[in-house]
Amino acid sequence: MNSHFLIGYNDKDTFLHRLSGSTKLIGFIAFSIIGMITYDTRFLLGILTFSLILFKLSKISITEVSFVIKIIIAFAALNLLMVYVFAPGYGMTIYGTQHMLWRSPENYFNLSWEELFYIFNLFLKYTFAVPLALIFLMTTNPSEFAASLNKIGIPYKTSYAVEIALRYIPNVQRDYRTISLAQQARGYEISKKAKFWPRIIGNAQILLPLIFTSLDRIEVVSQAMELRRFGQGKRRTWYMEKQFGKADYSSLIVIFLIVLAGVALFNVNGGRFWNPFKH
Amino acid sequence: MKNKENNSIKTVVATGIGAAIIFVLMKFVAIPTGIPNTQINVAEGFLPLLGAIYGPIAAGLAIFIGHTLNDFVTYGSPWWTWVITDGLVGLAFGLAKRKLDIQSGVLSRRKLIWFNIYQIIVNFVAWVLLAPTGDIIIYHEPAKKVFLQGITTWIINSLSVAVIGTILLVLYAKTRTKRGSLKKER
């Protein structure tokens, strides 16, 4: 059921693996924010190419991530279809011109170059961060993650909560599977064969034990942490923290320049959209 | 003072483990409703309980982290407007902690009805007002599409909280010792 879930840290020796987690985190957040705001096709294409090159450099094999990529593409396609069905003329409203491909603007369903271009832009926005996210997930040691969060200014208690989440996901998953098997052995059917209500009841029978054991676990873990005097100091040092090296500083400069280029394009275009139709 | 420190550790742990549970529920426990791409989100139903026991910060952060991680591994990158909205919903549920006072072991019908009205309003503000507006402003998506998604999510999440959330609250309250249940023997 969850053999595909195994995208996770994979220890290799590449430039990206050696970079500090903080640098990668800053890069990912910076790119995803600028990419979220901008509608400049040239910039989005550039950043997509850049992230694909990085993906190549990270030596992640396609087979490792093919399943995830298929789901992402299916999700993007469905979303784009919805965007089209609900507002087929939206592209023309944004770009202010009408270059028709099929039927006239009076019909509800019509197709214009503007709409196609708008949808293409959306597609870029949905996908450009995917290679970056995969790189981030697969080249950063989860144990280093909390240290990175703390380093970029997130309070250490919050960072620690994220760390606990990453640490306990496999445990909760295992609990879930054990409880599910036990309940199925008692006769609750939860597969697709079951009808709607029996399936809901079956799922609820898993949910209750899962949540109540987890609440117990919260008690145990917090008592253990209290015994080890967690939260006494104002700051915390991290065993897995990586010191910034030359590569980190130069990467940060590159990230900064790319974001600056994105912001500069807002001025050049006079807004978030790059409009190739206005000539 | 001592008690306060213990609570802050508990909040940290509850946030972390809560996020892990939310992640697993979002990823693996989906009950299809029959309409394609709409499923009853069990994770939302767990949120009121987390909020009622550990308060707004734990619930808000837990759903924020859980949702972000889930988006990461499912869609490649988080859909920030919805992630943030979900965090605010968690925060709002956590604010009901004092009013519900679940640790007292008594959860009257009146409190439950109050909570359900509250959660429907919270979900309405979040999914019909905030999330779609964010999508329009930040992602520039067509209004009709995001409002349809928002309204569907509002209905599904409210139902999920009303059914699963209420059941969990009631069952948890039953495990608590009732206040004043012990009497001094004469």
Automatic annotation (TrEMBL), chain A:
Q: State which residue ranges cross the membrane.
A: 25-55, 67-87, 116-137, 249-268
Question: What GO terms fall under cellular component here?
Answer: plasma membrane
Q: Keyword set for this entry?
A: Membrane, Transmembrane, Transmembrane helix
Q: Where is the signal peptide?
A: none
| InterPro entries according to UniProt | ABC/ECF_trnsptr_transmembrane
> Carries keyword Metal-binding?
no
How the protein sits in the membrane? Multi-pass membrane protein
Instruction: List the Pfam families hit by this protein, alphabetically.
Output: CbiQ (PF02361)
The family database entries (CDD domains) matched by this protein are listed as: EcfT (cd16914)
Q: What is its main location?
A: membrane
The entry's localization annotation reads: Membrane
- What protein name applies here? ABC transporter permease
Upper taxonomic lineage:
Bacteria, Bacillati, Bacillota, Bacilli, Lactobacillales
